[in-house]
Amino acid sequence: VFSFSMYWMVLTLGPIMVGASIAATSYVTSLQILENETLSGAFNLFLRWLPLLLSFFAFLGLYILVPNKKVHLAHGAMGAAVAAILFELSK
To answer: What tens digit of pLDDT does each residue of 48-69 get?
Structure first.
């Protein structure tokens, strides 16, 4: 029952999360405040890396929670990093 409910959740929330990620990325990149020099470098860097970090954690949750077998955190993190980078490049 757990695997079916997790599978159903991924099928239901997956497209919503992809749309939200694309919308958030386009919103952050269109902000005029990013071109303003008054922002600190750390905050500007955080805003630029935010979509990648959100994608990484979404894929990490997907790769750790969905399979029926136990997935080590390091293996899930490596897969999530590759998937997040490729997902952000495809946007």
So the answer is: 788 889 889 989 988 888 887 8
Dump pLDDT digits (tens) for 65-81.
888 789 999 999 999 99
* 79 contacts 63 by C-beta, under 8 angstroms: yes
Task: Please report which residue ranges of the chain form alpha helices under DSSP H.
Answer: 2-30, 41-65, 73-90
Task: Give pTM, 2 decimals.
Answer: 0.70
What number of other Cβ atoms are within 10 A of residue 73's Cβ? Answer: 11
In contact, 84 and 52? CB cutoff 8 Å: yes
Q: What are the extents of the domains in the chain?
A: 2-90
Q: What is the dihedral of CA 86, 90, 13, 4, to 10 degrees?
A: -50
